[in-house]
Design goal:
The protein is of the alpha/beta class. It contains nine helices and 18 strands. It starts with a strand and ends in a 5-residue tail after the last strand.
Length: 359
């Protein structure tokens, strides 16, 4: 079985560095767990090392809050109107942009004699979820007019870098600030939270000053991968090997690689490419797309190259490696965002926590 190794010491470093950096800028940190999900070990590391709260993008299978939570987590995806009851049971706060869904949240919350916090998402250019800026005041007005409120307007938020690849700039950041001020002035509703996401913000924050209303940041990829997404740059102060994918060799052989004259699609539905020809050394590994996203893996040995992937095998070319591989040898890889997600959710990948002896 392939292994996803979590280095707890390096995870703590990344969390503590980012919490201190963001807190010094007046930002509370919401730690995003799209991959690890309800992993109790990681949740406890988040909370014990200064993360203000934890954000989930899907409803958990286990509806009981982890004992490590100081408060209920945040639902960072737009809720399905069919799952509002379950969402309210588990989360105190959710991100929203559809007024019909917001009204349903109010209806369900009021019926249960509860109050649920909502953050209204604003599309500041990334073209994913969110109300267009010119419609924000109108939506807020409709929220304010809801009778018998079972919800509380908590603030506004935005997302950058995930859909259209939009990066932070003065325009989209100040737009959020201006909207928060307008809401308070024209609707008399306090804007307690102005939330920005995600790790793409970190590069901008090094050289730019945030306007005062923005007080929350959502981080996930930088914590686990030490990476600034969208610009795809390693953060110099973070570990990029918190997560290591480890697999063993099933078989090795030398094979002549030629360009086939007539060939079709492979098991994954696309035509393979043949970068290397001639006699090549190949190793069959015990993982495929059932275990992770193999194309997103980076071998720690620079002489290794992934040349073929299917459901349960990955073929490695090791001709240029100094290692003479044999069955039973282990190879290790750094992970990108897609391989991390698939590795954590796969039932075929074993999660291993690498801890220090004094933990």
């Amino acid at each position: 079985m392939a292994q996803l190794i979590v280095d707890i010491k390096k995870l703590r470093h990344n969390i503590q560095f980012l919490v201190e950096f963001c807190n010094n800028l007046g930002l509370e940190v919401i730690g995003i767990l799209k991959g690890p999900g309800q992993d109790s070990v990681i949740i406890r590391e988040f909370i014990s090392n200064g993360i203000a709260n934890v954000g989930f993008s899907s409803l958990p299978a286990n509806k009981c809050c982890d004992k490590a939570f100081k408060k209920k987590p945040v639902f960072i995806s737009l809720p399905s109107i069919h799952e509002i009851g379950s969402m309210i049971d588990y989360f105190d706060t959710s991100f929203n942009s559809e007024i019909s869904v917001i009204k349903k949240i109010n209806e369900v919350s009021a019926a249960r004699n509860r109050s649920h916090n909502i953050i209204l998402m604003v599309d500041t250019g990334d073209l994913r979820e969110g109300v267009l800026p010119e419609n924000v005041l109108g939506i807020v007005k409709q929220i304010r007019e809801i009778k018998n409120p079972g919800l509380c307007f908590s603030g506004i938020g935005t997302n950058l870098g995930c859909c259209a690849g939009v990066i932070p700039n003065e325009h989209n950041i100040n737009l959020l600030q201006d909207l928060a001020v307008q809401i308070e002035e024209k609707s008399s509703l306090p804007v307690k939270t102005v939330s920005v996401g995600g790790s793409v913000m970190l590069d901008w924050l090094k050289t730019n000053k945030l306007p005062p209303k923005i007080n929350q940041i959502r981080l996930g990829e930088a914590i686990f991968l030490g990476n600034i997404p969208t610009i795809d740059r390693k953060h110099k102060d973070l570990h990029d090997d918190v997560l290591i994918f480890r697999s063993d060799v099933l078989g090795v052989s030398e094979k002549r690689i030629d360009h086939p004259e007539n060939y079709g699609k492979n098991a994954l539905g696309y035509k393979p490419e043949f970068e290397y020809t001639g006699i090549r050394k190949r190793a069959i590994m015990n993982f495929g797309i059932s275990d992770t996203y193999p194309i997103g893996l980076q071998p720690l040995d620079p002489g290794l190259n992934i040349v073929c992937v299917n459901s349960n095998y990955t073929i490695i070319d090791y001709t240029d490696s100094k290692k003479d591989l044999k069955p039973g040898d282990f190879l290790e890889f750094k992970m990108n965002y897609m391989s991390m997600l698939q590795g954590f959710i796969s039932p075929f990948t074993r999660i291993i926590y690498k801890k220090q002896e004094d933990d």
